[in-house]
Amino acid sequence: MNTIQQLSLAMINYDNGDPKRIQHTTKVHAYAALIGRGEKLDDDIQFVLESAALVHDIGIRASEKKFGHQNGKLQEQEGPAVAKNLLTQIGGYTNAQIDRICWLVAHHHTYHVCNDIDYQILIEADFLVNLFEDNEPKDAVLAVRNNIFKTKSGLKMLDDMFGINE
């Protein structure tokens, strides 16, 4: 079993009893993987991206336990330590990869500093899922398209998914 498969199963176990959260995670991972391949990422960046997609919301449970609720900023605050612990337990990651994955977890709800391709793709994949899950209206989808999406592959997926023909 490869490392991504191990991490996928570990996250399903981590979110045991919460199929909605598990479904969200697996969809974000699938879209991140597709966009990354479409953008022709090198193998290391693709591996880091897919790993980050699998643990991007790992801070939710820690936030709920510590604060009694969660939001994007609390996820960013609490997630990296939990992610680092899980990635270390699984193995197969260098310290640099773990640091990068944790950085992505700590910033995945911060959109104004997005300059790196793995970061951009993670945000796009999360938006693809959130826009659908939150049943956002077409004007919100268009606003996200115009203000957030940058990759050719992500834009194509968003347009196809939501029937945008510009």
Which regions are unreliable across 5 or more consecutive residues at pLDDT < 50?
A: none
Number of strands: 0
Strand percentage:
under 5%
Give me the secondary-structure category: mainly alpha
Number of helices: 9
* Mean pLDDT across every amino acid position: 92
N- to C-terminal separation? 42 Å
Name the shape in a single word.
Answer: globular
Rg computed from alpha carbons, rounded to a whole number of angstroms: 15 Å
Sheet with the most strands? none
Summarize the structure.
This protein is mainly α. It has 9 helices and no strands.
Explain what this protein looks like in three dimensions:
This protein has helices spanning 3-14, 19-38, 43-55, 59-67, 72-90, 95-105, 117-133, 138-147, 152-162. The protein starts with a helix and ends with a helix. The mean pLDDT is 92. It has nine helices and no strands. Helix content is 73%, strand content 0%. By secondary structure, it is an all-alpha fold. The longest helix has 20 residues, at 19-38. The chain is globular, with a radius of gyration of 15 Å.
Notable features of this structure?
single chain, 166 residues, mainly alpha, globular
Task: Draw up the topology in text.
Elements: H1 3-14, H2 19-38, H3 43-55, H4 59-67, H5 72-90, H6 95-105, H7 117-133, H8 138-147, H9 152-162
Helix pairs in contact: 1-3, 2-3, 2-7, 2-9, 3-6, 3-7, 4-5, 5-6, 7-9
